[in-house]
Amino acid sequence: MSQFAFGQKAVGSYLHHIELGAISGRLNNSIRLDYSIQSFHGIQLDQKNKLGFFVGFDSYPKQVLMPLGFGWRSSLNPNRRNSLNIGLDLGYGSSWLDRKEIEGVFEKWNEGGVMLSPLVGIVRKSKNGTMAYTWNLGFRKQFASTFEGVRSSGLSTIEGIRPGYDSIFEESYVFNSLTLRWGILF
């Protein structure tokens, strides 16, 4: 006898969860509203728990980050049509989608950082049980930085500054965001 979970998935089977949504927070005493998309790929560990990796796209003011990492999801009542869902994503927000700006010896670029995102929501199985719909509310803490540097004209290095630069200005950010996402699990 095999066990079943959301979308009639057997234990150990592959699952895919795609989510679209909004991420909102404060920036310079004003409210910002940005968008997010995320694709979670994993396996059904047991009737309640799923484990996998995710890749996404988050837009922030003057910065675009691509979160990559590992996630866990748990359905508290997997045998019901509607269930409470909790989860946690932990990863790194890469900025490789942003391009470096170069003007003569002046350069400007973005770098990502660690990302943490707990969530709680509702999962509703489809009538035929082959997929489920999700509505999740969560919190996302994303670290990121912007750098502006002047390239060195010679081979000299200045202690405490990246090799190849005469000066660098770094501005660090911590984006604390409320997330609201809608998704399909199949």
What is the H/E string? EEEEEEEEEE
What structural class do helix, strand and pairing data support? Answer: mainly beta
What do we call the CATH topology? Porin
Query: How many structural domains can be distinguished in the coordinates?
Result: 1
Q: Which CATH top level class fits?
A: Mainly Beta
Percent strand equals over 45%
What's the arrangement of strands in the largest beta sheet? 1-2-3-4-5-8-9-10
The end-to-end distance, rounded to whole angstroms, is 22 Å
User: How does the overall form come out from the CA principal axes?
Assistant: elongated
Mean pLDDT: 89
Individual helix count: 0
| CATH architect. name | Beta Barrel
Radius of gyration: 21 Å
Instruction: Identify low-pLDDT runs.
Output: 1-8
Helix percent reads under 10%
The overall strand count is 10
Largest sheet: 8 strands, antiparallel, barrel
Detailed description of the structure:
This is Outer membrane protein beta-barrel family protein. This protein has 186 residues and is an all-beta fold. It has a single domain (6-185), classed as Porin. It has no helices and ten strands. A hairpin with a 4-residue loop joins β2 and β3. The protein is elongated. Residues 1-8 have low confidence and may be disordered.
Give a quick rundown of the structure.
0% of the residues lie in helices and 70% in strands. The protein is mainly beta and 186 residues long.
Q: Could you outline the blueprint of secondary structure elements for this entry?
A:
Layout: E1 14-27, E2 30-44, E3 49-60, E4 63-75, E5 82-94, E6 101-103, E7 106-111, E8 113-125, E9 132-151, E10 165-185
Antiparallel strand pairs: 1-2, 1-10, 2-3, 3-4, 4-5, 5-8, 6-7, 7-9, 8-9, 9-10
